[in-house]
Design brief:
Elements lengths: L2 H10 L9 H10 L1 E5 L4 E3 L7 E7 L2 E7 L2 E8 L4 E2 L1 H6 L6 E4 L3 E7 H10 L1 H31 L1
Antiparallel strand pairs: 1-8, 2-7, 3-6, 3-8, 4-5, 4-7
Helix pairs in contact: 1-2, 4-5
Length: about 150
């Protein structure tokens, strides 16, 4: 199986890209860059400028934010997960650090290419809003639970 076909097959399984036809996914894969990381390598760091997002093709990484109390683990991501989109959607510095926990192969999606996809496929924008809403809900629940533990502890 060619690398491009493999990338397209993985992109089809990314919920965000589920409504996009294979020809457009092939274009996305072709215009994106395959990047590889060793365990403990950073895909990007909190505070960096956001010029791209990443689709994890294989491997696992952890997402964490640095706080005054030290790093706070936000998520573990793996194959078909999409990370780094907040910085390119909002033109803000990276809100978290993503660090490989195993060898990771990812598809680096350029900011301009991603914007073009959102314009061309409104359903992708809706899927992204759902995912971001889910993440916000989960983060809020985690913060409430942490605050409750802190208040009673």
């Amino acid at each position: 199986m060619s690398l491009l076909k493999n990338e397209v097959d993985i992109l089809k399984r990314v919920p965000l890209f589920s409504g996009i036809d294979s020809a457009k996914l092939k274009l996305l894969a072709f215009t994106s860059q395959v990047v590889r990381y060793k365990a403990k390598d950073r895909l990007f760091a909190q505070g960096d400028a956001g010029d791209s997002a990443y689709v994890i093709l294989s491997g696992h990484a952890r997402v964490y934010a640095n706080t005054a109390a030290g790093p706070v683990e936000l998520a573990e991501v793996g194959e078909t997960d999409f990370v780094g989109e907040i910085a390119i959607l909002c033109d803000v510095p990276r809100t978290a650090t993503v660090e490989a926990t195993t060898e990771v192969t990812a598809l680096r999606v350029d900011k301009d290419c991603f914007a073009e996809l959102l314009t061309t496929f409104p359903s992708m924008g809706i899927a992204m809003l759902r995912e971001l809403g889910f993440r916000l809900s989960r983060t809020t629940a985690d913060l409430v639970a942490a605050e409750s533990r802190h208040a009673t502890g």
